[in-house]
Amino acid sequence: MTKEIDFYFDFISPYSYLAHQKIKSIKNVKFNYKPVLVGGLHNLQGITAPAFIKPKLKHMISDCDLIAKKDKSSFIWNSKFPINSLNIMRGYLFINVKNRDLYLNVMFDAYWKDNLDISNEEIIKTLIKKSKIEPISFFDAINDPKIKEELKIVTQEAHDKEIFGAPTFVVNNKIFWGQDRLEFALDEYNK
User: Fold this and answer.
1) Can you tell me the distance from the alpha carbon of 46 to that of 107, in angstroms, rounded to the nearest whole number?
2) Where are the domains of the chain?
3) Which of 175, 187, 173, 184 is nearest to 41 (CA)?
4) What per-residue string of b and e applies to 100-115 under the rule 16 or more CB within 10 Å gives b?
5) What separation in angstroms does the CA of 63 have from each of 57, 58, 73, 159?
6) How confident is the model at residue 47, as a pLDDT?
């Protein structure tokens, strides 16, 4: 039996946000957050993102609203969607493990609850201070070649596992794609 569930996410994925909201209430299960660039995954897989297909985007917006309402999650479709999440995804890899939960909550909420442009450097500065992270260290780190390479590696590893979107859960080498597959991932975890 596995001791954790890998959770592949990107802050710009509304479904990742909705899954994260559910994960926060789950006790006695270790989730291993794996940051990927969902745009990079789409490119590697040759997929056009739903954000660039008008009917899919329209459906996605109403679908997320329905899910959030059912789950009683605060949710606002971000008016800046989609943004480039590169810096904040790199940031997740840099920050100390003890600050990661706070960082996750601050960044997800800023984008999907507070309608902020989390690609804007001034907004990022405010958010990382709120996450108890020193801004100079953060901005130095996200430009560090090791951090840049680490995000590329995690995204490539996801692609190599045939993961093509976020969120995706991996348990016992089985892939469960989409926030609505969390229950299936939990079933697999409990086998």
Assistant:
1) 28
2) 5-189
3) 175
4) eeebbbbbbbbbbbee
5) 10, 9, 13, 26
6) 87
Mean pLDDT by 10 residues, the chain (191 residues): 87 98 95 95 88 90 96 96 95 93 97 97 96 95 96 96 96 96 96 89
Cis amide prior to 35 (ω within 30 degrees): no
Backbone angles phi, psi at 80, to 5 degrees: -100, 5
* Residue in the structure block whose two tokens are 């001791």: 3
pLDDT of res. 48: 86
Residue with tokens 């592949």: 8
Task: Note the pLDDT of residue 2.
Answer: 52
- Give the amino acid at 147: I
Structure tokens at 122: 């001034």
Q: Which of 16, 56, 12 is nearest to 33 (CA)?
A: 16
> Which CATH number is associated with domain 5-189?
3.40.30.10
Q: What's the token pair of residue 160? A: 């190599």
Query: What pLDDT sits at residue 51?
Result: 82
| Model pLDDT, residue 3 | 84
| pTM of the predicted protein model | 0.95
Say how far apart CA 42 and CA 165 lie, in whole Å: 7
Two structure tokens written together for 185 = 């991932």
